[in-house]
Design brief:
The complex is a heterodimer.
Chain A lengths: L9 E4 L5 H11 L3 E6 L24 H7 L3 E4 L5 H11 L4 E4 L5 H4 L4 H7 L4 E4 L16 H7 L2 H4 L19 H19 L3 E5 L1 H6 L5 H8 L16 E5 L6 E5 L3 H11 L2 H4 L7 H6 L1 H12 L4 H10 L4 E3 L3 H7 L3 H4 E5 L5 E5 L3 E3 L16 H9 L3 H9 L5
Helix pairs in contact in A: 1-8
Chain B lengths: L7 E4 L6 H9 L3 E7 L22 H6 L4 E5 L4 H10 L5 E3 L6 H7 L1 H7 L4 E6 L11 H7 L2 H4 L14 H24 L4 E5 H6 L5 H9 L10 E2 L2 E2 L1 E3 L5 E5 L5 H12 L12 H6 L1 H12 L4 H11 L2 E4 L3 H5 L2 H5 L3 E6 L4 E6 L3 E3 L16 H8 L4 H9 L3 E2 L8
The chains are: A alpha/beta, B alpha/beta.
């Protein structure tokens, strides 16, 4: 059986949108019982925006919501109602971890700040993922993922030096900050298991995103050198680029790090004239001839099939890959058979669930559909609060569990 | 106290996984970096301190190996691997590289490793599951995982994103996998083997596209995003020539409308049909045109402060110089002075993003090559001092002496 190291750990999850829920999904994948707190009065926007199956407009079937919330439970709880706060506190008394990604101070105003929660459960682990962090002159700034990568330097360093900085095709930090957060939370569980102490942890998505850069910030701090956008070229690997292949908008990526890889590339592409030049054996010489090398490669790749060419170059020992898009990944590339799981959804349409990018002892981690809105409300109320069906019905009628 | 204090990591990572073990060191693990006596790839790539080559001067080494210890061995000599095997019983986890030296591959192979240790876990990494031995750089990883195709100007080839994002995704998954394994060991006593796939890890960052393709596109391909992102163009030029990222967050629509009306005397968005999100989506070219004009009225920093004051989601597109001088990060103590003893100079570095009531993280310097060879082997592997001297004389071990302690 696949290990589930967070089994027995309960998370009361107030996160919404993408980055926060994806972080608690990582905990759920590892076996934690993650109870997502939801409300009609404050619906997670990600249930509404984004991609829906054809002809459907439902809070249950949004693709991104499902990606971010597999393996969780959902409970309806209106925090705008005084009884809602009471019930939240009762749930937290039986939990190990509380997570949120609101702007600073929101949890405090609900009476659910760290000091409040520590009084309810002394060893509670409380995790917050504000974009800017709770302290600092710009802590009130608001941004979503594309703003976070702009502040973090990724946009400014991507593209060509004489042109506009280019946007990444995804809200990239929404898929990286969750890892930093889950890492810190999992470490806090390990620490609590050893010492008995809980803690408040804060992960600023902006700070985490600066760590996605390579040495550029350090180069500025140490050498005063400001790295500029450099297209597809590298400061140490040459050739290093994306070259046209047969077909519309089809490309192959090639990177050459050594004399052996250079000779293998020239042999594989039939670049005999370049292959015979000893001045190109080392990177320094190839940098001096980069334009000529790139032209030579493009002339040879442009009529080849990207997949067959990448395969033959790899067999010759050259780092190469077709530039795949999601159609390739979900179709032509056999990788999807082991990574994406086609799953029927109660609302009618099947959808793809995406595994974690790992195997443990050769096995995938278990995966099940994201919960329907409030699917587990009654069960959680019974299991954690001892409320029977009638009591739950009353709380629904009073506007507390909705 | 740091949360991973008392745990020990044997670090065989390469460029793809080296951030994983750095993060574990940040969180308090004793990370022993086992490296080739000639200096590994992380130590041999530019840029260097003051532009001068040297295995202690690579900024990648100073960044990614911060807080680790160094054991330097001749990877070609089988005796080296017998020494590493003797260390295993003192280690909880091994962090493996993506591309493996033959000595590393043989050491980590299931048939060898399972004889050496049942308890110690391995966090391994492959490029593709169906072709695990293929060669991959970060560029190749972003190509195979779908991120490269989406990135760049629409009229141009796909553009390799900055930051080595394929390596970063693998390292983040490996760091979380390592702590997961420590938790599992604390329960069952056994770590096992986790294998992270770089192609899958990169595809994780395009997670929102899989079902879109499944339901709608089938064989129709998505366009590169250029200056756009979710909901249209987000990057705009400010009056001074700098750039901002401005996202049309639906709850901030009215704040944007009043800003446009007051600044440009353009009242078109006050018409009620613009309240409808679907209508705005269909007419987003108009919104982008007006946003372009709005951004031309103020310099970058004024745009950001005025927009944020009004509740519009606008932030600066920052350069590395902006980040290094950001008063917000400075006020949060993000930057720390670190003494690099082997270079006899201090440098400024930045701390990890982890803030906690239980600990405060100080960034420690990266080790000199072989700085801890002697202490690691004598204290953790039971090797006698005289044997260390013999290994050094035989050229199997590099033991750098006399560097001040961390």
């Amino acid at each position: 059986m696949t290990p589930q190291p967070l089994r027995g750990i309960r998370v009361i999850d107030f996160c919404w949108m993408i980055a926060g829920p994806l972080g608690t999904r990582l905990l759920a994948d590892l076996g934690a019982e993650v109870i997502k707190i939801e409300s009609i009065a404050r619906l997670d926007r990600i249930r509404e925006v984004g991609v829906q199956p054809p002809g459907v407009l439902s809070p249950e079937t949004n693709a991104v919501f499902n990606d971010c919330n597999v393996n969780k439970r959902s409970m309806m709880l209106n925090l705008g109602h005084p009884r809602g706060i009471e019930i939240a506190k009762a749930l937290i008394a039986k939990a190990d971890i509380v997570t949120s990604n609101f702007t600073p101070d929101r949890m405090n105003r609900w009476g659910l700040g760290y000091d409040d929660l520590k009084a309810i459960k002394s060893d509670i682990i409380v995790a917050s993922m504000p974009v800017m962090g709770t302290l600092g002159p710009h802590s009130h700034w608001r941004a979503v993922g594309n703003g976070v990568i702009a502040m973090g330097g990724l946009n400014g360093l991507t593209g060509f030096p004489d042109r506009a900085p280019v946007g990444l095709g995804t809200l990239h930090s929404d898929f990286t900050s969750p890892y930093f957060a889950a890492l810190q939370i999992a470490a806090a569980v390990l620490q609590r298991n050893r010492t008995g102490a809980g803690q408040f942890i804060e992960l600023s998505q902006y700070e985490a995103t600066v760590h996605l850069l390579d040495t550029e910030v350090l180069d500025y701090l140490v050498n005063g050198h400001e790295t500029q956008r450099r297209g597809n070229r590298s400061n140490r690997i040459v050739p290093h680029g994306v070259f046209p292949t047969a077909g519309d908008d089809r490309w192959i990526a090639i990177a050459v790090r050594s004399k052996d890889e250079w000779i293998a590339l020239c042999t594989g592409l039939g670049l005999d004239a370049l292959k015979s030049r000893t001045d190109l054996f080392e990177a320094e010489g190839r940098f001096a001839a980069e334009d000529e090398i790139e032209r030579g490669i493009s002339e040879r790749t442009c009529r080849r099939d990207a997949w067959e060419l990448a395969d033959s170059l790899q067999r010759a020992g050259v780092p190469a890959a077709p530039v795949e898009d999601v159609c390739d990944l979900a179709g032509r590339d056999p990788m999807h058979e082991r990574f994406l799981v086609e799953t029927p959804h109660p609302a009618g349409h099947s959808m793809l669930l995406q595994h974690e990018p790992l195997t443990w002892n050769g096995e995938r981690l278990p995966i099940r559909l994201a919960p329907l809105l409030g699917e587990d409300t009654a069960a959680v109320c019974e299991e954690l609060l001892g409320l029977d069906e009638a009591a739950v019905g009353d709380l629904v009628a009073e506007g507390v569990l909705c | 106290m740091l949360p991973l204090r008392g745990t020990r990591v044997l670090d065989l990572s390469d460029e793809a996984t080296v951030l994983a073990s750095r993060l574990l060191a940040d969180l308090g693990a004793d990370v022993i970096r086992v490296e080739e006596a000639v200096g590994d790839g992380v130590r041999r790539r530019p840029p260097y301190v003051d532009g001068t080559l040297g295995v202690e001067r690579a900024l990648a080494h100073l960044l990614y190996n911060a807080g680790k210890r160094s054991l330097a061995l001749d990877f070609e000599n089988p005796d080296s691997w017998r020494l590493v095997a003797r260390l295993l019983s003192a280690c909880d986890i091994v962090v493996a590289p993506l591309e493996k030296h033959p000595g590393v591959a043989a050491f980590l192979s299931p048939e060898n490793f399972e004889q050496l240790s049942r308890r110690t876990g391995i966090v391994d990494c492959v490029f593709r599951r169906n072709a695990p031995l293929e060669r991959a750089t970060d560029l190749i990883g972003t190509a195979a995982g779908g991120l490269l195709y989406l990135n760049g100007y629409r009229e141009d080839p796909p553009n390799h994103p900055a930051g080595q994002l394929a390596y970063k995704q693998v390292s983040l998954a490996a760091a979380l996998a390592s702590v997961s394994m420590l938790l599992e060991q604390s329960v069952s006593g056994v770590g096992g083997r986790i294998t992270i796939c770089m192609q899958e890890a990169v595809m994780w960052t395009t997670i929102q596209s899989a079902n879109e393709n499944y339901w709608y596109w089938h064989r129709t391909r998505q366009e590169r995003q250029g200056l756009a992102n979710l909901g249209g163009q987000t990057i705009f030029e400010a009056a001074s020539g700098g750039w901002v990222s401005l996202y049309q967050h639906p709850p901030a629509w009215r704040a944007f409308v009043s800003w446009v009306a007051e600044t440009l005397d353009d009242h078109r968005f006050e018409d009620p049909e613009w309240e409808d999100e679907i209508y705005r989506l269909r007419h987003r070219d108009q919104i982008m045109d007006v946003t372009t004009k709005l951004c031309e009225t103020l310099d970058r920093d004024s745009l950001v402060s005025e927009g944020q004051r009004r509740g519009v989601l606008v932030v600066p597109v920052q350069s590395v110089a902006d980040i290094a001088s950001d008063p917000h990060l400075r006020a949060r103590g993000f930057f720390q002075d670190v003494m690099i003893e082997q270079l006899a100079r201090g440098i400024e570095m930045y701390r990890p993003p982890f803030v906690s009531t239980e600990y405060e993280i100080r960034v420690h310097r990266a080790p000199a090559l072989g700085e801890h060879s002697r202490e690691v082997l004598t204290q953790l592997a039971g090797v006698e001092e005289i044997e260390v001297d013999r290994l050094v004389a035989a050229g199997i071990l590099l033991a750098t002496e006399g560097v001040k302690g961390q």
